[in-house]
Amino acid sequence: xxxxxxxxxxxxxxxxxxxxxxxxxxxxxxxxxxxxxxxxxxxxxxxxxxxxxxxxxxxxxxxxxxxxxxxxxxxxxxxxxxxxxxxxxxxxxxxxxxxxxxxxxxxxxxxxxxxxxxxxxxxxxxxxxxxxxxxxxxxxxxxxxxxxxxxxxxxxxxxxxxxxxxxxxxxxxxxxxxxxxxxxxxxxxxxxxxxxxxxxxxxxxxxxx
Length: 209
Description:
By secondary structure, the chain is an alpha/beta fold. It folds into two domains: 8-77, Winged helix-like DNA-binding domain superfamily/Winged helix DNA-binding domain (Arc Repressor Mutant, subunit A), CATH 1.10.10; 84-196, NAD(P)-binding Rossmann-like Domain (Rossmann fold), CATH 3.40.50.720. The chain has eight helices and nine strands. It has helices spanning 8-26, 34-41, 45-53, 67-77, 93-101, 137-143, 158-168, 194-207, and strands at residues 31-32, 65-66, 84-89, 109-116, 125-126, 129-133, 148-151, 172-175, 188-191. A hairpin with a 2-residue loop joins strand 5 and strand 6 (129-133). The longest helix has 19 residues, at 8-26. The N and C termini lie far apart (39 Å).
């Protein structure tokens, strides 16, 4: 994907396609049409065909797509064959929930280190993941060569922790705080505001019945 210029909207849909193709493969299905994919993932078939067209000829007219080949292609595109180690900063209620989640939908993602300012948590192992004092963040991220981090800290700590992560060499941050952190151009940030998403859903329910 690094060598391809594809729209961000398309890139966001690739994991969705991959997970469903993996489900089809595990269930023994050998081929699938864009219409079938559309019904399953709730993306219109024209969009699916356009998304796929960025990667060349992935299917055959009148036949559809070979499930195994397409699954393997998107798996390789998404680096599913490479294990990505992730740091979790902030082991409060949300952080603990993420540790429990273990990212079952992907075998290529693993939270390998967690950090927290609470001295009662630092030094423990939770859900198989070592929790370090936040004072060791820069050192551990560098030593473990971690490039992706999840941020679930209090608002006031978001930017200072982000600065430490950047110092340690982090290249991508999933930010669960409501603060919009500032990072260099070469550090990607994905903001996930659960309250905002819920409020948006409630708004749509109230105004688009």
